[in-house]
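Late entry, written up from scratch paper. The run itself happened at the end of the previous shift, but nothing got recorded in the book at the time, so transcribing now.
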Amino acid sequence: MDFYRINEEYNRYLQTYEKEKRGITKVPNIRYADRNKFAFGAVLQVHGINYYVSVSSFDKKQEANILIRIPGDKKEVKGSLRFNYMIPVPNECIERLVIKDIKDEKYRLLLNKEYKFCIDNFERIQKKANKIYEMVIENRKQKLTDNSCAFSILEQGYHEYVENVLKQSSNESF
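Output as recorded:
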């Protein structure tokens, strides 16, 4: 379990794929002006596919998230894990975020606190990931399904990316 950066090209591919199949995409943008978004995981494994959940600055409690709380800090809620935006990611498209290599000390301290929270709450995180995945796949709540990634579509996109991009590029390197 760790924090990871997801390959931007793969993330854009999933956004385009979901938009083509569904008309919209809920795959979050990961490029920001100051810092790129990162994810925690793998929080769930389905059909041999690892899912990662975005670590977000969003700090309002919702059914599909877990607030990252650091008791004793002036601002106790640091953000959240947003399970309705989990995405499946091949190992080739993910890179471990090495917290100790972060130059900005304040940001590094925040990441360490968030990481400790995630590790301490890992079982709860896995349960929530499973619950939200099942609720969306089974369309148990229309509002949740509408505001979530279409996991089954993303899994198809994952497989197509592995077949058409990753396998092609590994074949070309021989």
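The longest strand covers residues 77-88.
(Scratch paper discarded after transcription.)
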